[in-house]
Amino acid sequence: MLQRLTITNYAIIDHLEVDFSGNLNVITGETGAGKSILLGALSLILGERADPGVLFDKTGKCIIEGFFKVKKSQVAAFFQEHELDLEDQLIIRREISATGKSRAFVNDTPVNISQLSELSSYLVDLHQQFDTLALGNADFQQEVIDALVNKPAEMQQYHQVFVQYVQVQKKYKQLFDSRDSANKELDYNRFLLEELTDAGFSTHEIEDLESELQTLSHAEEIKNTLNRVYFQLKEDEQPILQQLKQLQSSLQGLAAFHKEMPAIAERLLSSYLELQDIAGEVEQINDQVQYDAQRIELVNERMALGYRLFKKHAVQTTDELLAIKAELTVKVDNVLNLDEQLASLEQEQTRLKEQLLQLAGVISAYRQEQASPFEKQVNVLLAQVGMPNARLKVDMVAGELNPYGQDTIDFLFDANKSNQFAPVGKVASGGELSRLMLCIKSLVAQSVSLPTLIFDEIDTGISGEAARQVGIILKDLAKSHQIICITHQPQIAGKADAHYFVYKEAKAEKVTTSVRLLSKEERVNKIAQMLSGEKPTAAALENAREMLAIPS
Asked: N or C end: fewer C-beta atoms under 10 angstroms in the chain?
């Protein structure tokens, strides 16, 4: 409930404070006095965008504060989600500087505009944002029926499954498009992979073949050199190994005559043993090296294949070629696996769609259950507000699955009992729309938790008995909700629990808007003026007293 609204330096308002009652609050005043300016200021603390052009004094700062009394359970989730302090009284403040900078605070904690808008949705329904044009909007019509259904858990469950369904559909389409694109390259990639697989190169193979070819190509030269080395080491007339052995023995014989001889003899023995090992390895290598023309031909062919693949794939080593083979394997496997993934996603789509259809059927049943009583109640209220021949009909047909079910809901209207129903936005006049909106809101308000409903000239296009009936509806609605209503109709003003008068006055050569709460006698006079003009007649005054149930 909005307890107090303070406005400083906004439009033609210098400063004012308004304390509202918890029931039916009516605001009246001459056209242009600033009644709607109050709601414009209020909309700023409800999250509307700020315009620095609204500053009354361009050198100062605009400050608007709303003091709300709230049930903690009503906004607890919001405060917990945004880590805000929750107190018994909720204070929302909006500040706008001359430079256009805007700041918002909830209980003195800074918040952004989106947070402010979200919070306001728990507090206030402002008719300017929810006006008669919305009656022709399909989303609004569905929201009305769902508010009457009042099954948030079922709606939330459906919405969660629908989000999953949309995500799976999106993933399926992406994979399907990827498969089409990948299939165009699959044959070529598969050919490249088969070519590399058939080549069957192992790690470093081409580099090893290059080395082997060098050996095979110089086999005769290698064997001649190795034979000569081996011969000189072991088989010459005076083999080097034999000479070293003899020299070592001679030095060993001098060991007793010089202290350094044993060490030199030992070193010479080590050289002998090392050359003996070398001779053995030379003999072994010599046995292995053979000129093989057939092997040379095979190696040349293998290397030619490798070099051709090097050039084709723009690489220089066998390992790079094998890396390309691995990449191609992954690409080909991924394409082949896409069909399996698509089949799995298709099954998931089918499962989720069946679940959605089941949940949507439950929601549709709830909506159908509410539609007929809603029609009857609206039509009774329409007769009450001076439209006895008007009829509203809720047309509901099954359509495509959407975030809120599968129903297409349309409000159809017949103003003259002609049984010629048409979409309400096309056939209802402005006055009819205003009264129809009030009837609908009065029914919906019983199913929603919004504590405050604000109507800006809901009485457009009506007067007399119809206006009186609108006042009765608002008065009845105010028993469970705080109502703030701007009106030009005395019949509605007479039903108020608190009547505020908006007027202009000159201050320091500037015209400003002010608001005051009227006393009983002031209300009599203002309502009489609304009935008969600036100078009310005795009959008008008497009529005003009758409206206010004040004895003469």
From this structure: C
What residue type is assigned to position 41 of the chain? A
DSSP SS3 for 536: coil
Q: What is the pLDDT of residues 128-168, one digit of tens each?
A: 434 555 676 778 888 889 888 888 899 999 999 999 999 99
> Residue 76 pLDDT more than 60?
yes
Q: Indicate whether 449 pLDDT > 50.
A: yes
Write the CB contacts of 354 (distance below 8 Å, at least 6 apart in sequence): none
Q: Which DSSP string corresponds to 168-230?
A: HHHHHHHHHHHHHHHHHHHHHHHHHHHHHHHHT--TTHHHHHHHHHHHHHTHHHHHHHHHHHH
Q: Which DSSP string corresponds to 232-286?
A: IIIISSS-HHHHHHHHHHHHHHTTTT-TTHHHHHHHHHHHHHHHHHHHHHHHHHH
Strands 498-507 and 510-517: antiparallel
Sign of CA dihedral 371, 377, 381, 382: positive
Of the two residues 339 and 317, the one the predictor is more confident about is 317
Domains of the chain: 1-123+450-518 (3.40.50.300), 178-337 (no CATH)
Residue whose pair of structure tokens reads 């050359």 in the numeric block: 275
Would you say 404 and 146 are in contact if contact means Cβ atoms under 8 Å apart?
yes
pTM for the complete prediction? 0.64
